[in-house]
Amino acid sequence: MTAISTHVLDTAAGRPAADVPVCLYARVADGSWREVGAAVTNADGRVPTLGEVGPGRYRLEFGVTTPFFDEVLVTFRVAEDDEHLHIPLLLSPYGYSVYRGS
């Protein structure tokens, strides 16, 4: 099983983004998405774990509020040999970046 965690940083303010809702979805056989985890970022902008998942396709949905974005969706794959995936979101009012963290 692979543990999924995330971290949201407000790069415009230069600090963690607290109280951001995050949902983890799994892609199912019919092509739809099923929620498998949900949390809200803590004061340090972190969600230490959204749960443990097996190999497959997943999506993180960040409920952000900026002048331009209402949500950020990140779709990714989990491989058999992944023990932990940390997927940080760097957020600014008009742009964002994600990467596979450690």
Key traits:
mainly beta; globular; 5-stranded mixed sheet; 4-stranded antiparallel sheet; about 100 residues; single chain
Structure description:
With 102 residues, this protein is mainly beta. It has strands at 2-10, 15-16, 21-27, 33-40, 46-53, 56-62, 72-78, 84-92, 95-98. It has no helices and nine strands. A hairpin with a 2-residue loop joins strand 8 and strand 9.
Could you give the topology of this structure?
Elements: E1 2-10, E2 15-16, E3 21-27, E4 33-40, E5 46-53, E6 56-62, E7 72-78, E8 84-92, E9 95-98
Parallel strand pairs: 1-8
Antiparallel strand pairs: 1-2, 1-5, 3-4, 3-6, 6-7, 8-9
Largest sheet: 5 strands, mixed
Fraction of residues in β-strands: over 45%
Question: How many strand units?
Answer: 9
| Shape by Cα distribution | globular
User: What is the CA-CA span between the terminal residues?
Assistant: 16 Å
Described by its quaternary structure, the protein is single chain
Derived structural class: mainly beta
Q: What sequence of helices (H) and strands (E) makes up the elements?
A: EEEEEEEEE
Q: How many helical elements? A: 0
Radius of gyration: 13 Å
Task: Give the rounded overall mean pLDDT.
Answer: 96
User: Would you identify the regions where 5 or more consecutive residues have pLDDT less than 50?
Assistant: none
Helix content: under 10%
Brief summary:
Helix content is 0%, strand content 60%. It has no helices and nine strands.
